[in-house]
Design a protein that fits this description.
This protein is of the alpha/beta class. It has two domains: about 1-90; about 95-240, Rossmann fold. It is built from nine helices and nine strands. It has helices at about 1-30, 35-55, 60-90, 95-100, 125-140, 160-170, 190-200, 215-225, 245-264; strands at about 100, 105, 110-115, 120, 125, 145-150, 180, 205-215, 230-235. It has a five-stranded parallel β-sheet with strand order 7-6-3-8-9. Helix 1 packs antiparallel against helix 2 (about 35-55), helix 2 (about 35-55) packs across helix 9 and helix 7 (about 190-200) packs across helix 8.
Length: about 260
C-alpha cells in the first residue's frame, strides 16, 4: 500500500510539474489569465503538500494540513473532470448531428457564428485565423450557409475584431453578401446575444454553428441555447497546443461562473 502511495505521489508531482511548465511558458508568451495564474499556484501548493506530508509524518499539524489540502485538490480535480466532460461533449455536437434532416443527407440552412478573438494591427491573431479558416472551409462546403462575425474593439486593437474578420473572410473568397458583422461584443455571452439580434433582424436561420477552439465551443453553444437558438459546434484546430492547459482551466472557471449566475 505504501509503495502504491509513493508511486501515486510521484505521478501527481510529475503531472503538476508538466502543467507548471505549460503555464509558465504560456505566461512568458504574454498570455496571462486566471487559468495559468491559479493553475501555477495550485500545482505548487499540491507539490509542497506532498513533500511536507512525506517529510513531516510525525508532525501532526503539518500532516493534517497537507492531507486536507490534497483532499481539496482531489475534489477540485474531480470537478474539473466533470466540467471537462461537458466541454468534450460540446465538441462532438457537430452540425451533421444537429441539423441533418431525414435519411437523404439533406441539411437545413445554417448561420455560422465565428466568435471573436484578439487581432494584431488589423490582422487576425493565430487563434482567430484558425477560427476563420475553419469557417471558410465550412462555408465553402455549405453554400446555403451564411456567417456572422462577432467581436468588438479591445483597448489594444485598432479596429473592431469583426471588421478584421470580415476582411479576412473576403480575402479567402467568401462573398461579402454572406457575411454579417457584429462589432460591439466584448465577451462570449455578448457575442451570442448580439449575433442573435442580427439573426432576428435579417431573418437568418436560427440553426447556428458556433466556431471557436474546442475547449470554448461548449460555452458558446450553451449561451446560444439559452437564447433559444439551435446550436452545433465547429471546433477550430489549436495552433498553440502549449497554451491549451491555460485556456482549458480558464474555460472551466468561466463555465463555473455561468452555472453560478444561472443558479443565483
Amino acid at each position: 500500500m505504501k509503495k502504491v502511495k509513493n508511486i501515486f505521489s510521484i505521478i501527481v508531482i510529475i503531472i503538476c510539474n508538466l502543467l507548471i511548465l505549460s503555464f509558465v511558458f504560456t505566461m512568458l508568451r504574454n498570455i496571462v489569465n486566471h487559468g495559468n495564474i491559479i493553475g501555477t499556484i495550485g500545482c505548487l501548493v499540491v507539490i509542497l503538500s506532498i513533500i511536507l506530508y512525506n517529510l513531516y509524518k510525525k508532525n501532526k499539524p503539518v500532516r493534517i494540513i497537507s492531507k486536507v489540502v490534497l483532499i481539496l485538490a482531489g475534489v477540485f480535480a474531480l470537478y474539473c473532470a466533470v466540467i471537462s466532460s461537458f466541454m468534450i461533449s460540446g465538441m462532438t455536437n457537430t452540425p451533421q448531428k444537429a441539423f441533418q434532416s431525414g435519411t437523404d443527407g439533406v441539411y437545413e440552412s445554417e448561420t455560422v457564428i465565428v466568435l471573436g478573438c484578439k487581432t494584431i494591427n488589423g490582422s487576425p491573431s493565430v487563434m482567430l485565423a484558425a477560427r476563420l479558416d475553419k469557417a471558410v472551409e465550412y462555408l465553402n462546403e455549405n453554400p446555403q450557409a451564411v456567417c456572422v462575425v462577432t467581436g468588438g474593439m479591445g483597448s489594444d486593437e485598432i479596429e473592431p475584431e469583426a471588421v478584421t474578420m470580415e476582411r479576412y473572410l473576403i480575402t479567402k473568397g467568401i462573398d461579402s453578401t454572406r457575411i454579417y458583422k457584429e462589432d460591439k461584443a466584448t465577451n462570449t455571452e455578448e457575442n451570442i446575444r448580439y449575433s442573435k439580434e442580427i439573426i432576428e433582424k435579417e431573418k437568418l436561420s436560427q440553426n447556428v454553428v458556433v466556431v471557436s477552439e474546442s475547449y470554448h465551443v461548449y460555452r458558446g453553444m450553451r449561451n446560444a441555447r439559452k437564447l433559444g437558438l439551435n446550436a452545433a459546434a465547429l471546433p477550430a484546430p489549436t495552433n498553440t497546443p502549449w497554451a491549451v492547459p491555460s485556456y482549458w482551466l480558464r474555460e472551466i472557471f468561466a463555465i463555473s461562473r455561468d452555472f453560478a449566475v444561472d443558479l443565483f
